[in-house]
Amino acid sequence: MMNALTRDQAWHRLVAARPNLSFHAMDGLCLDDVPLASIAAAHGTPTWVYSAATIEGRLAALRAAFAGEGLAPAIRYAVKANDHLAILGLVRAGGAGADVTSAGEFARAEAAGIAPGAMVFSGVGKREDELRRALAAGIGQLNVESAEELEMISGIAAAMGVAAPVALRVNPDVAAGGHDKISTGRKGDKFGIGFDDAGALYRRAAALPGIEAVGFSTHIGSQIFAPAAFEAAYRRVLGLIGALRGEGLAVRRLDLGGGFGIPYDDGTAFPFAAQAAMVRRVLGGHDLELIVEPGRWLVGPAGVLLARVTLVKRAGAERFVVLDAGMNDLIRPALYGARHGIVPVGAADAAGAPAPAEVVGPVCESSDRFGTHDLPELAPGALVALLDAGAYGATMSSTYNGRPFAAQVMIADGAPQLIRRRQTLDELWRDEIVPPRR
């Protein structure tokens, strides 16, 4: 089928910049050549729709970029980005492991067939029961974020008679990330161990019972689009590794973290070839096992949130397009001021002349807004797709305002398949217990 969009239409650039999207003259907006309108007809709205081929392709491209530089870092997918078992299964099939931050994510990764030895356990607040479970299962690496946590792990592991593979998450004091709330590697951030303290703590780790000090981890933020910030962080940590090795301490591993940006507009993608070349130039020849932790980059562009227009409200010159999807489904715009591209799904709707409209959800909060977008006139019942919603969408959603969890669909081998049914109204209170009263 021919692509029906012309270049003078405002949302053409958004669709053209995404190889998994196309616009057909009869079927409208398609993901992997599957009409999104047909998915809405079958499963209702709001509905998350994911492209399996996009995730598989991006995982292969990441491997190829590093392989082109003679590198083969272990890939540990950040489960928090999207934890659905179907997506974790794609990650496992592609040879990647998992970066988990809780017992729940650990259990999900295990349920998807990811071996604990291929997992990294991150986070500043790991509980004792979580650590015991991970250690008993043979976790591949614990990223330690404080001196207090290191002592706790030592006591637990020694009592269990095991050696905990520990990497210290060092904070290199490098500011990076698209928003203050997703910058994690600066002095004063809650994450990581201060750079000036990391050397002494590694010496302590090497001497503690129940601890196998394997190396360092670093993660400086999210939505980073250039290798320069990563290079600054890696060079600082490499200097620390060199000093410790000079003292005779073994340091064999460096976890490079993640944070690779995706464009939510029609901008330039993260230059993974340049990133891989930088990693080889900076870290090659230092005899280090490398780990990389993609999350958003891997799954974000694979998903859309399909929504329907409930009504169009006019207030003077203002036009509010009210959707049946809200901040309970996709909280990123309310939480971070994030912006997701919005594209009309129907071919007839797309033919209309665009004009600014404030796109909002139905939730009873002033922050339930998706921003101002150039959209055609949209009647109640019209469909739109919120783009790049595969990461930090469904995993951060809630049932606030009594709105059930949306359905989830995956397109695999050209066929859409329901991977999570829509929550029913009575399931909203199914697990609640009302105690009897006299």
Automatic annotation (TrEMBL):
Alphabetically ordered keywords of this record: Amino-acid biosynthesis, Decarboxylase, Lyase, Lysine biosynthesis, Pyridoxal phosphate
Binding locations of pyridoxal 5'-phosphate: 259, 293-296, 392
* Cofactor requirement: pyridoxal 5'-phosphate
Tell me the PANTHER family matching this sequence. Answer: DIAMINOPIMELATE DECARBOXYLASE, GROUP IV DECARBOXYLASE
PROSITE patterns this protein is in? ODR_DC_2_1
Q: What's this chain's function?
A: Specifically catalyzes the decarboxylation of meso-diaminopimelate (meso-DAP) to L-lysine.
Name its GO BP terms in alphabetical order: lysine biosynthetic process via diaminopimelate
| Ligase recorded as keyword | no
User: To which protein family does this belong?
Assistant: Belongs to the Orn/Lys/Arg decarboxylase class-II family. LysA subfamily.
Protein name, per record: Diaminopimelate decarboxylase
Gene3D superfamilies, per database record = Alanine racemase (3.20.20.10), Lyase, Ornithine Decarboxylase, Chain A, domain 1 (2.40.37.10)
Q: Which residues carry this modification: N6-(pyridoxal phosphate)lysine?
A: 80
What residues make up the catalytic site?
Answer: 364 (proton donor)
What EC number(s) does this enzyme carry?
Answer: 4.1.1.20
Q: According to its UniProt record, in which pathway does this protein act?
A: Amino-acid biosynthesis; L-lysine biosynthesis via DAP pathway; L-lysine from DL-2,6-diaminopimelate: step 1/1
Establish whether keyword Lyase is in the entry.
yes
Please report a single Pfam family linked to this protein. Orn_Arg_deC_N
Catalyses: meso-2,6-diaminopimelate + H(+) = L-lysine + CO2
Q: Which residues bind substrate?
A: 296, 332, 336, 365, 392
List the CDD domains. PLPDE_III_DapDC (cd06828)
Domain Orn/DAP/Arg decarboxylase 2 N-terminal residue range list: 54-299
Which proteins does it associate with, and in what oligomeric form? Homodimer.
The species is Acidiphilium cryptum (strain JF-5)
Q: Which InterPro entries match?
A: Ala_racemase/Decarboxylase_C (IPR009006), DAP_deCOOHase_LysA (IPR002986), De-COase2_N (IPR022644), De-COase2_pyr-phos_BS (IPR022653), Orn/DAP/Arg_de-COase (IPR000183), PLP-binding_barrel (IPR029066)
Checking HAMAP family in the record gives:
LysA
Q: Which gene encodes it?
A: lysA
